[in-house]
Amino acid sequence: MKVMKWSVMALAVAAGTSQMAVASQQSESKGFVEDASLDLLLRTTYFNRDYKDGAGDVRSLGQGFITTFESGFTQGTIGVGVDAFGLLGVRLDGGSGYSYPHMFERDDNNDPERDLSQAGVAIKAQLSNTVIKYGDQMPMMPVLAHDDSRLLPQSFTGTLITSNEIEGLELNAGHFTADSSMASSSHDAGNYSPDGTLNSIDVLGGSYQFTDNLSASLYFSDVEDIYEKKYANLNYVMPLGAEQALSLDFNIYKTKYDNESIPNNFFGDGTVGDDNTIWSLAAKYTTGAHAFILAHQRVSGEAGYAYNLGDGGSAIWVANSYYSDFNWKDERSWQASYELDFSSFGAPGLFWKTAYVYGDNIDVAGGEGKEREFFNQVQYVVQSGPAKDLSLKLRNSIYRSNGALRDAGSPDLNEIRAFIEYPLSIL
Known about the structure:
The chain has 427 residues and is mainly β. It has two helices and 20 strands. The strands form two sheets. It has an 18-stranded antiparallel barrel. A two-stranded antiparallel ribbon has the order 6-7.
């Protein structure tokens, strides 16, 4: 942790030599009520995972109501405020045969709950351009990232400090002690430590925008009794013309496992391993409405890359993460993908992405594992009229693996996810 602390301090010092402090956000605060907002997101989610061996298929349909309130800060040298959320999910499908455990938790009879609900609140204070917040939150950092990929979002309980005192530089430090999963009404529904709950996670890091085209970030996290992680990112965009650009994005995680039983039979050959490195490099060429992406990702060490064990279901910021994350022990994977923005063709708000990812060299008990995924996603956002901002999204993954990887617990499947979202601004 000392190495990461010094690295972040060095980043801050380097930034301070080239940038002046930005204007104080607190001095511009209008008040607790004047800057407040209240929003409601209506989300309908359909999930269908069809396993090709016919066993364990899951389907689920639910309606979500996600309400968020963010107050402004009171005026003065130090401003205070309150943020809160309320979540309600209602199951719309038939019964246990359609149950998907990441949307609706099971009751004592192993049947999916009819509904689930949760509320959270956090108090906050602001001094200049630094905010400290304590309570229920939805952090989004490379080493602590809440999952919002199903019906209701994941949340964490703890303290987070976010500082933007120097232009282009953001620093974060946090300590969280509880986690609520997407499918649970409980504020501590994790299954990470030996007693079944999240003990704690500490986070430290930051990001810096060196120029309009170059940015970097550096983070450290420690999930008690599980693992420590270091993360780094470098992103560079090279303009090639009025409507052309080449961007390079490099991500790397280094993990040290505390509990050596976690990687076993999950991301490797069954032997005990206590370290992992995963990195990816993606090159994206954009020309007008079109984008072409090539990426390579590689895993090394004594185990595969594990996440969502106290650090959130989105804590995997690498290129080849779709249905599969291509994060098995020793895996090498390649991606070719294409994106199309239909705005240039008279359909603003319509966007399509397709990708093919292939991975091999996976070290599992049955030999070399191999996997491949064909991914498609189309999304449309209504641009005007009574339904403005209504979003329709459909994604499909066709996943296949060889016998060695299927035996290790990664079966063939076809997956469909559909989302209808309509945001409403109440205040």
